[in-house]
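Lab manual, section 2.4: Encoding a predicted structure.

Procedure: take the sequence of the chain (762 residues), apply the prediction step described in section 2.3, and record the output as structure tokens. A sample record is shown.
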Amino acid sequence: MKPLFRWLLRAILIGSVLFLIALIGVGIVLYPTIQKMEQEIVKLVREHQNLETTHPGWSFPGRLYSAPANLDLPKTHRIAHAQLRNYTLSCPAKNPGTYCDKDGVVIPRGGLFPEGLQPPGAENWTRPLAMEPIELGPLIGADAEIRYHLPLEEAPPHLIAALLHSEDAEFYNHHGVNFLAFTRAIIANLQGGSYAQGASTITMQVVRNLTQDKDKNIKRKLREVIQALLLERHFSKDDILQFYMDMPYLGQHGSFSICGFAAASLFYFQKDIRDIDINEASILVGILPAPATLRPDKFPARAQTKRDRVLGLLGKAGWNVTDALAGPIPIASVSPLGSFRFPAFAQASISWLEENLDNQTLYATGLQVFTSVDVVLQERTEQLFTDKLSFFMKELRLPTDPGMQAAAVLIDPHSGYLKAIYGGDIQSPYDFSRATQARRQAGSSFKPLVYALAFSSRNDDNTLQWRAFDTVPNERRTFPNTNGWRPRNNGGKYSPTSTLAKGLTKSENIATASLLESLGGPSKLIEFANELGFETSKYPNELGLALGQAEVTPLEMGTFVAMLANGGVQVYGQPITHAIDQNGDNHIYVTGLGSRLLSEDTVALTRDIMRLVILQGTGGASRWALGQRGFTGNAFGKTGTTDQNKDLWFVGSSTKLSGALWMGYDKPLNMKGSSSDLAALVWGGWMRAMHTGLDVPTEFEGTKTQPKYVCGISGKYRNATCKTMPIPTVNGDRPRGRCTENHPPDDPNKQYNSLWKRRGLQ
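Recorded output:
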């Protein structure tokens, strides 16, 4: 026996040495491969942690929010914001979420702001006190996954315990792989001749999701084992568990996948994940292996069986599960998406985001996107346009199916941000928006660009080439090189000449076309409009462009008048202020304003002639119509009507807010009234509603003009037959000489009677 024992011992020693040598050799051969795998898995984890990649299983939708409402708003507007947010009336206001309408005190609820979470009440804020932004809706990309980040430190302890005891009881003891369980699984699979048992640890499941390698074979499993071991060399257990809280698929809602525990809690229980009890935590963990066949809303009995198994494991670990075992299984699910609020503004926001951010950033990084919408102004806008359109269709007996549409944008000219949008009967942010996407002919609302172009022209000494009292031809004629184009003035009124001020105030077609002719023709206007931000690629190179043949959007027209309101600085009409990802980084690097595009002199002259449009011209209904007061503050504007009243426009601004609106039918038809009758009336009522409760400056920014009361036809000082106008001037300019013409009185048969006067309503 001794020789045999010695032989066996020698054989074992030799075999062990040979195995060790072979193992070392295999290690040497595989070392470069393993080193490469290590680099790859570390890089992959970093990319996921930094939200630099997206794929099914790792896509975080974002959410849209309104602007906050600062507590330094004027009292009336502040109270309106509190009411819209459903704050409770309480005098005196003491608790968060209450307000007093007597003294205007509002106690904020706190919540999510661009600067981060703010506490309830008025203490310990990191930004000025404000009422919280209102959620407008989700931002979901092509992966169609609803997933919300749950910081590990905020996860309920019973959820973590249920997860660990059910999925990986040795998680904090192994190094990524539970070799005992793994060996058992290999033996079972070899005996069964198939791949039935996986023995995956949480670390291995995280690796599988990160790599998206889900083939069911031994080769993939061995690769996963190595990657799990390598992963735990560089990342903590909490890092790995953090991934797992957000990753797993836990149900389906239509075409949307419910992923991660935070989204699943909202879906199944309508609860924030931080508020679930041990019963609900065990239900979520229990359905992990097969959500499609175990979900509690469709298969409550199966879900209960799995829940009880998880609770049993928790009970063995010392948790009190008696009440939970008797608890109910929910039988209903509700979409964690919620519905979109203010879809027209959401549409503008999403379109802007898609143009300015890549899809990876927009739809996969959990962006919290803060818009510039003032929810009070948005609500008022939607209500006013709905009411006005219904009134017009009823009073004028216009078609209601499909009905009259409108589109409007409201812009803060001093910040360049959008404050409200009306997009017509848009129901979803993925519908076509008439406010930002639809192009319709602008009619005479485009004429101010011709006059701004004139006032932008300079002599060699940098003096103005054109002044508002300068004159252009205004008699009916055929314009040369136009294939016989012979426009007419509305109302059939003509004169040998007309001042630039009168040409725009009275919306004279011939005077405006004559001016563009003198400026060098349509190519000059196209170049000018392009510089101001208009999309000009399809503009006709025809003299009729001066009269509004160009197709524009309300957003383009709104940014133009906002630029005039702020003194000449470019306005973008931007709807987004911040886009904060889960790491706290803001992805918005631009603001609503650009550089100066027009001089203050150009702006002042254009703006103050447009002010005459409201005071003496075609925009009078914006101040008073149908026995109702419109906007009577300092404002300028311009009407626009296309042939047969198919498109009605009014564009203009107060010193506080700028607004552009269009009215018409998607399939154009005659609306039985001009923009002077309908669009001006709506704009005046809209602006009145927008300014209620706001502090409004009395003067516009920039250069101030001095009015010269001169003849509107000759541009000279008046005689007894002249109709004078307060024509704006700058830099001490003034007319030379006195008018020598004898102007006949207006033909009473050609005096304009408004639509409402003709109908006996005014």
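Check your result against the sample. DSSP finds 23 helices and 29 strands in the chain.
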